[in-house]
Amino acid sequence: MAGRANENESGSVRPPSVDKLARQINDDPDLHSYAVFAARKAVSLGGDFERDAREEFIDLVGPSLRPVINLSGVVLHTGLGRARFADEAAEAVRAASENHSAVEFDLNSGERGDRQSHVRWLLQNLTGAEDALVVNNCAGAVVLALSAVCAGSPVVLSRGQMVEIGGHFRMPDIIKMSGCDLVEVGCTNKTHLRDFESVMGDEPGAFLRCHQSNFAQVGFVGQPEPKELAALAHSRGWVMIDDLGSGCLVDTTRFGLPKERTLREAVEVGADLVLASGDKLLGGTQAGILVGSTSMIDQCKRHPLARALRIDKLCLAGLEATLRLYFEGREAEVPIWGTCIRELKDIKGDCEKLKKAWGRGEIGEATTELGGGSFPGIGVPTWRFGLGTGSGELAKRLRTAGVVGRTESGQIWLDPRTATSEEIRETCLVLELIRENGGNEL
Q1: Whole domain around residue 346: which residue ranges?
Q2: Are residues 343 and 267 in the same domain?
């Protein structure tokens, strides 16, 4: 057989021909390049050549960036792309991808335009800032702000805010990489205003306030109020930069969550630059948002990194559409907020549908986490369905069918809060299919 390992006279395994193995696992000429790639990989690894090549081929022929149904119990799941787009944002992205777009073209004058113009006025209105700039993500916004405004100057950061986020992104390292002199003040749990004042020299510098987005401090803890930091900085000609992180534009208590500072509040208390993400509590596309004084934003715009970090047209289109929902007072249509205010009785009803499809299991109360670097350890009440097993093989079958749950307390849990009605129907079909094929024995 072409896909079987053969032995030569010395008894060693002779790998099959890549071309023959490719034809053994696939007879569709349009997919031949995938089959060759899979066969070549299987041959290079050894083992059961035909089985391994078939498995690799199946993985390759479909897109790896697939839509999934998020039943993980986390709204802003970073591994699943964080914020789900509003319908209008998704349509704006589709339209921008299918057509030529006036990204940097002024339709009135017929001359070169500015891609920032699509969102600048919206951000100015929603935050009260003098000016705004968007780049590819919030990490990029931090690097740009520090490089453009603070290079060669001291940047003061509390030891309680020296955060590390995903991908080993450490704020102290970024400050140094941006050409700034890091000055650490305070202690892990307590930093006072006098700590900042004690390190201020004759040469101007910057205070950096960094949002504790993925952890929480409790007990004997404290940080200076942003308003106090801004006033102290300005009294000596220094700059105040507030890395707000989450990008919140609304009163989160309306959605059953604790109070979160908004971009407008950060601007109002005197920050010269406020930085935020577009795909966290703002609920839009991946983007790094900078709002603040005209002079600070101008410095960022003129820096060479602004070009290297510029936002692409698809993210720009989705961000504009999302910001327009806030501008029109329709923020409840942004999925993150619509998810938070779903009725518990509707969620429990979805759980009952899932249980009926699976044929056994339990329904229990739980909490849907916000996730994605916002509200660490905090969420909203929910109901979830437990399948009665924590089988790794079953979890894999669900994932490969596009359903992502959570294994906890010895079983697989599915939280419907983040799913649409259509997704619940699809999940029920998946559960029924797995059950009919021996899934209840896993």
Answers
A1: 69-80+338-441
A2: no
| Residue 23: partners with Cβ closer than 8 Å, 6 or more residues away | 2, 35
Strand pairing partners for 423?
Answer: none
CB neighbourhood size of 409 (10 A): 9
CB 231, CB 240: distance < 8 Å: no
Residues contacting residue 34 through CB under 8 Å, at least 6 positions apart = 26, 57, 60, 61
Same-domain pairing of 358 and 219? no
Query: Are 171 and 258 within one domain?
Result: yes
Q: Is 343 exposed, middle or buried (0-12, 13-18, 19+ CB in 10 A)?
A: exposed
Give 124's contacts (C-beta < 8 A, 6+ positions apart): 130, 131, 132, 291
What's the pLDDT tens digit per position in 355-407?
A: 999 999 999 999 999 987 778 778 999 999 999 999 999 999 999 999 999 99
290-344 confidence digits (pLDDT tens): 999 999 999 999 999 999 999 999 999 999 999 999 999 999 999 999 999 999 9
Place of tokens 């309680």: 160
Distance set, CA 137 to CA 242, 247, 282 (Å):
16, 11, 13
Does residue 433 have a pLDDT over 50?
yes
Asked if residue 344 and residue 329 are part of one domain, the reply reads no
Alpha-carbon dihedral angle through residues 175, 176, 180, 184, given to the nearest 10 degrees? 70
